[in-house]
Design a protein that fits this description.
This protein has about 450 residues and is of the alpha+beta class. The chain has 10 helices and 20 strands. Strand 15 and strand 16 form a beta hairpin. Keywords: Cell adhesion, Cell membrane, Disulfide bond, Glycoprotein, Integrin, Membrane, Repeat, Signal, Transmembrane, Transmembrane helix.
């Protein structure tokens, strides 16, 4: 028994040590350097019986010329850095980094709040019968709205669209007489035939046309309480040419209603099972042609296209519908809401106040794939205290703020070398393009290498 015990002890003493770290398991250089914190020693004379070629950085003595990945002496290069102007808010515009897996780089970014950055404002209004008074108020206040916005920016354009709902049961009555005159208004005038969405005025600098088009628009009617506003929002966002959205401008979509909304799945009530495809179907004369082809969009689809096209949605709603829209803005990035008075007489103040909140704040996002790259932001905003944040509030025209973007490569990209992504302000076209060259291969493994 004593001999067996001594043999076990001896065997334990000479047995290979258990792996001490994540690097020990790798037997190839490229797999080693693709693991954060690991290095490879390619020295020709190397005692592999006592040491592993793949090791945690700094734990094994190895000739500098034989260590992989090779040190990056030139990690950063500026490719484009135009000066600030009315349409350049962000600096630099394009940079290139060279990093290893697990390595970080802190990139300094600058943003300047400028007064006269272009603004496109599209007013999308529910024109079902209950909004008759609101339409009259908007028609009268159109010139005042334009004047208020032009006081905030000299480069301003205004457009107008309206919606009711899908022209099918159970949303509207399909009785022939009701399709022609669905209701009678408070003014004793007959309602106009129902429709899904109409673009009455493409974004235009001639703001006097706005009041004219609002005044000309006819109020209609439907059966159920929710409206088809999501169809209208989708078309107003994705029909870039028909609406006239400019690339270099703030995009404000003001959505005005007193009612709930239909969303994905509700179309099944009318046999519309085809999911909304998020494409444009508005003709040059402003009519939406596919209202009875697709289901309503989902909330996530609205959020997706709003982010894609840099749209700030402002829900201008009456108090009775405030609860559901208050919850909705939490699901649509860059959106906000304000309470309209019963006849929308406060619409000018509401739009001005919500616009001011948008432009007085800057929030950064990264489009980088989180599987491959991690980006964290910090800033002192307009104070002297740096903290981890991607948002600065309370800005005024002329304010300039700095952000630090800490960029860390998590793993090698699928293409084996290059990661490209954007850092941009929410709902603005301006961005910084970041090209990251990642060292993912070892020259010592290439054919013909010694």
């Amino acid at each position: 028994m004593q001999i067996i015990h001594l043999l076990c002890v001896f065997t334990a003493l000479i047995a290979p040590a258990a792996p001490k770290d994540k690097c020990y398991m790798h037997e190839q250089c490229k797999n080693c350097i693709r693991t954060a914190g690991c290095q490879w020693c390619a020295e020709p004379i190397f005692n592999t019986e006592t040491m592993n070629r793949c090791f945690e950085s700094g734990t094994v003595r190895c000739g500098r010329n034989y260590i992989y990945p090779k040190p990056n002496n030139d990690k950063y290069r500026t490719l484009q850095d135009n000066n600030f102007s009315t349409d350049v808010l962000f600096r630099p515009q394009r940079v290139q980094l060279k990093l290893h897996v697990g390595e970080e780089y802190s990139l300094k970014l600058k943003y300047k709040h400028t007064r006269d950055y272009p603004v496109d404002l599209y007013y999308l209004m529910d024109l079902s019968a209950s909004m008759e008074d609101d339409k009259d108020s908007l028609s009268k206040l159109g010139s005042k709205l334009a004047a208020e916005m032009q006081a905030l920016t000299r480069d301003f354009r205004l457009g107008f669209g309206s919606f009711v709902d899908k022209v099918e049961m159970p949303y509207v009555s399909t009785v022939p007489e009701k399709l022609q005159v669905p209701c009678t208004l408070k003014s004793k005038q007959p309602c106009a035939p129902p429709y899904g969405f109409k673009n009455h005025l493409k974004l235009d600098t001639n703001t006097s046309l706005f009041s004219m088009r609002v005044n000309e628009a006819k109020v209609s009617g439907n059966l159920d309480f929710p409206e088809g506003g999501f169809d209208a929002i989708m078309q107003a966002i994705v029909c870039q040419k028909q609406i006239g959205w400019r690339q270099k401008a703030r995009h404000l979509l003001v959505f005005s209603t007193d009612a709930d909304f239909h969303f994905a799945g509700d179309g099944r009530l009318a046999g519309l099972v085809e999911p909304n495809d998020m494409q444009c179907y508005v003709t040059d004369d402003g009519n939406y042609t596919h209202s009875l082809v697709f289901d309503y969009p989902s909330i996530s689809q609205i959020n997706q296209v709003a982010k894609q096209h840099n749209i700030n949605l402002i829900f201008a709603i009456t108090d009775g519908a405030s609860k559901i829209y208050k919850n909705l803005v939490g699901s649509i990035e860059g959106s906000s809401y304000g309470i309209l008075s019963g006849d929308s007489s406060n619409v000018v103040k509401l739009v001005r106040d919500e616009y001011q909140k948008i432009v007085d704040s800057i929030g950064l996002i990264s489009t980088g794939n989180k599987q491959f790259v991690d980006v964290r932001f910090s800033s002192s905003c307009i104070s002297d205290n740096w903290k981890e944040t991607s948002t600065c509030d309370g800005l005024r025209p002329g304010n300039q703020v700095e952000f630090m973007a800490t960029i860390k490569v998590l793993q090698c990209p699928d293409n084996g070398r290059m990661l490209t992504f954007q850092i941009k302000p929410r709902a603005l076209e301006d961005s910084i393009t970041v090209e990251v060259e990642v060292d993912c291969n070892c020259s010592c493994e290439q054919p013909g290498s010694e």
